Amino acid sequence: MAALSWTTAARIASRELRSSRGKFFFVILSVAIGVAALTGVRGFSSAFRQTLLVRARSILAGDLSARMFQQPDASQIAKLDALKTGGVRMTPITEMAGMATAANSLDPLLVALKAIDTSAYPFYGVVDLKPSMPLTQAVGGDNVAVGEDLLIRLKLHTGDRIQLGDAKLRISSIVLSEPDRLSGSFAAGPRILLTQDQLESTHLLAPGSRAGQRYLFKLPVKNDRDVVRLKAQLETILPESQVTDYRETNPAITMALDRATGVLSLVSLVALVLGAVGVAMAMRTHLLQRMDSIAIMKSLGARSSHILRIYLLQTLLLGLLGGVVGVVLGVGVQLVLPLLLAKLLGVTPELHIAASAIFAGLATGLLTTLLFTMPPLLDIRNVRPILILRRTVDDAGDGSAVSGFLAKIRRSGAQIVAGILILVGITLIATTLSDSKAVGRVFTGGLAAVLLVLLITSTLVLAGLRVLLRGTRSSLTPVVRHGLANLYRPGNPSAALLAAVGLGVMQIASVFFLSHALIKELKLSTQPTLPNVFLIDISPSEIDGVRALLKTQPSVRGEAEMLPVIASRILSVNGTPAADLKLQNFPKRMLQSISITWTDNFPPGTKVVRGAFWQPGEPLAKLAIGQRMAQRLGVDVGSHILFAAPGDPDHPVDATVAAIIKSDGQHAFSRAEFLLPRTPLASLPTVWYGGVHANPDQVGELQRALYAKYPTVTVINVAQAMETLRGVLLQVSLVVQFLAGFSIFAGLVILASAIAGTRYRRIREVVVLKTLGATRSRIAAIFSIEFATLGLIAGFVGLIFANLTTRIVLRQLDLDYHFLTLINVCALLGVALLTVATGWLASFRVLGQKPLEVLREE
Q1: CA-based diameter of the chain, in Å?
Q2: Where are the bilayer-spanning segments (predicted)?
């Protein structure tokens, strides 16, 4: 036979496709759903993440912030100005304490001043004012905006004037919330928002004044790489400053987004690989059906390479067609999801349909289709015409499907190479889509391990069934005996079905378990009892009274969080004096005014990164230090830090680092960087700080009640900012649930199509059984037993690996793993029901036909 051209091979391939439209529907559906998940779900989650990141930026009011406690010199200002040539915007914020008085109150009040440039501040978010007005109208000229607590303490109203240094300014409005309220300094005293020019007119800012300078930066393009690059530049230009980017502003949002991104990436991978498994199952069935045609072509002189060329083109055509349909569906998903979720989430992501995403979807769909159809395509090379022409049933199984598979591997090293290529390809795809080598390795490792175990399990189960049937042949009903024997009959793809169903169960269950763990964590971060009002400067004599007062307030929910604070300074680190330390972007002067806290119980909202927390009653000076502070000081578990003891300079506290901790930023203890047990600090003077959750609309009442009884206690209201944060986290949880549900639904459809693809293999058996007098109900019962057994075995193994994979991934995401007994049992029964229902429905059309009609088709 002359060499078969690619053109002729393409014509043959397309003709077969046209003649088997129904059969290839499952192939196209599998590829399309996988690609739709990649381009649609991933595209929407990416757009939604970018939208949330903008809201995360609003908590900082910029992309980056540089905080320093001295004015930059001329060379530093020149370098900062040079950044503007690259499109970087910058605005200064000056924060300091001052004294304010009013005509009807002769007693001066300590206030916190925040001077801004209203033409630039804030870069992200808005300042919420009462009455509502533009910030440029509320602040500037002789107008200032103040916190409501200032009006309470000075008994003023909007429109009244206050004396601030040499300036007499008019109160234009009340500041309800500021974008950077959580990231700004928690100064003692009511808030006053004014311009830089107004601050100069007060003459409060003089050489030597204790004022904090903060610069906000906004990049022209929202790109994490540019953020990292600018951060490195700022750390070089301002070595004594604390440089923070928007990802560090609030750990709760950062962790939630990072974890959600990992889970959503896995969602795309699950649908894609399940689609590839569905393709492999359908192509395997198709090639086995075409054995007669292949044998005839080989008898006429066709080479294996010619036939491979035909079916390779057919595979690529199917992958391309499914990819195109998937891209269209994906774009539809990306268009429809924002409309469905806009009201629920209160946010509408911008639609970005990038050509790169479409190309990635098509390329990945084609690659996975080709990879997973390699094993059945390579089987064509081992086809011998004489054996196929003589066959009455195919020799795909000789009583043990797995034994036949292993025999093929022994005969051909190409199958081993194909398996390796599949694993390498999936690893590359997983790594690319998840942007994480660790996720790619875990994903591929789980995939390879579950396939291997499923193949071994199928061998043992089929062998065990043979032994069972031999010993219980007389005690089992014919239907049960026949259903179990079907698992190892010649030509039954039991091993392939076990692998496909088990793999599908593993991946679908993994997505569910991961999303469940993430949602549970997010719910903890969005509890309506998290502190949103903070109390400062509570004396030891007042702490019990403040606690009692808070319990009587109707606006307060839950228990108040109170922490003792001891003013101290660092004398040395690991024997090196504080003056000689080499710090990483941390002003040395900050070492002279640090706060240490004592606690015998593990603080809420805190996790141990390294080391171990102490038990209650610990007598030694052990230290738990915040992760970021540990990095700045260059300490780790086992390091020593010497703290000055206020009131007792001859007996400093020598603390040994026992734990590196990380806080979620939402509790009173979140601002404590240095924690020690109570015993070593028991004799030192203490001031108390606290946090409590109050109804955002009733914070004013709480402030009045506290001021009336404890006028020296400062109340810091961040309720509106916390509500914004809580809303962002709730949006993340809803999107994760929705997209995980979409992926699970898509996976179930693909899994059902893989099972349904076996209906063409059952035609001959149904014909024989019906010819021998079997009824449709009897045949359906036989199939049900067979599929239920398959589902239980594959489901059991798949769930074991789903739990193992989930545990590994959750450890990578720094989340706790819990075995969900009820859900696992229900999932196992659900898989059995799904396989039975799908197998029965797939065979329903065949069951309704007469034997003669089917034999004529054969």
Answers
A1: 111
A2: 24-44, 263-287, 308-341, 353-374, 416-434, 446-469, 495-519, 734-758, 779-802, 822-842
Residue 574 clears pLDDT 60, i.e. is over it: yes
Coil vs helix vs strand at 716: strand
Helix axes 494-525, 251-289, angle to 10 degrees: 170
- Model pLDDT for residues 471-530, shown as the tens digit of each residue: 676 677 777 777 777 766 655 566 666 766 777 787 778 778 877 887 777 666 566 667
Distance of CA 347 to the CA centre of its chain: 19
The domain segmentation of the chain, as residue ranges, is 6-54+254-524+727-857, 62-253, 533-717
Alpha carbon distance 171, 193 (integer Å): 10
289: which 2 tokens? 């059906």
Tokens representing 813 are 């995401």
Q: What is the DSSP letter of 251?
A: H
Site of tokens 């036939």? 307
What pLDDT, on the 0 to 100 scale, is given for residue 151? 86
741-771: string of b/e by CB count within 10 Å (b at 16+)? ebbbebbbbbbbbbbbbbbbbbbbbbbebbe
pLDDT tens per residue across span 796-836: 888 888 888 788 877 766 677 888 888 899 888 888 887 77
Dihedrals φ, ψ of 373, to 5°?
-100, 0
C-alpha to C-alpha distances, 811 to 252, 508, 545, nearest whole angstrom: 17, 19, 43
Q: How large a percentage of the chain has pLDDT more than 70?
A: 67
The closest of 185, 246, 226 to 62, measured between CA atoms, is 246
Q: Do residues 765 and 810 touch, judged by C-beta distance below 8 A? A: no
| Torsion angle (degrees, nearest 10) of CA 515, 519, 525, 528 | 170
Closest CA relative to residue 331, chosen from 692, 118, 581, 40? 40
Q: How far apart are CA 56 and CA 59, in angstroms?
A: 5
Whether the pLDDT of residue 145 is over 90: the answer is yes
Among 488, 499, 305, 288, which residue's Cα sits nearest to residue 404?
488
Residue 610's SS3 state is strand
pLDDT, one tens digit per residue, over 30-53 is 777 777 766 776 666 666 666 666
pLDDT category at 402 given cuts 50, 70, 90 is very low
pTM: 0.61
User: Which tops the pLDDT comparison, 166 or 778?
Assistant: 166
* Count of residues in the chain: 858
Helix axes 251-289, 304-345, angle to 10 degrees: 150
pLDDT band at 400 (very low <50, low <70, confident <90, very high): very low
Pick left, alpha or beta for residue 399 (phi over 0 → left; psi -120 to 50 → alpha; otherwise beta).
Answer: left
**What are 837's two structure tokens?**
């229902």
Q: How far is CA 38 from CA 52, 264, 270, 730, 742, in A?
A: 20, 10, 10, 24, 12
Q: How many CB atoms lie within 10 A of CB 23?
A: 17
Determine which of 7-16, 33-42, 749-758 has the lowest per-residue pLDDT on average: 749-758
Task: Name the burial class of residue 773, with classes exposed (0-12), middle (13-18) and buried (19+) by CB atoms within 10 angstroms of its CB.
Answer: exposed
Kindly report the CA angle at 800 between 795 and 806, in degrees rounded to 5?
A: 115
Question: Which residues make Cβ contacts (< 8 Å) with residue 400, sequence separation at least 6?
Answer: 459, 462, 463, 488
Closest of 181, 184, 254 to residue 533, by C-alpha: 181
Count of CB atoms situated within 10 Å of the CB of 411: 10
Indicate the burial class of 1 (C-beta count within 10 angstroms; 0-12, 13-18, 19 or more).
exposed
Cβ-Cβ contacts under 8 Å for 831 (sequence gap 6 or more): 501, 505, 791, 792, 794, 795, 798
Distant-in-sequence, close-in-space partners of 428: CB < 8 Å, separation ≥ 6: 440
Please state, rounded to an integer, the average pLDDT across all residues of the chain.
76
Question: How many C-alpha atoms does 703 have within 13 Å on its Cβ side?
Answer: 26
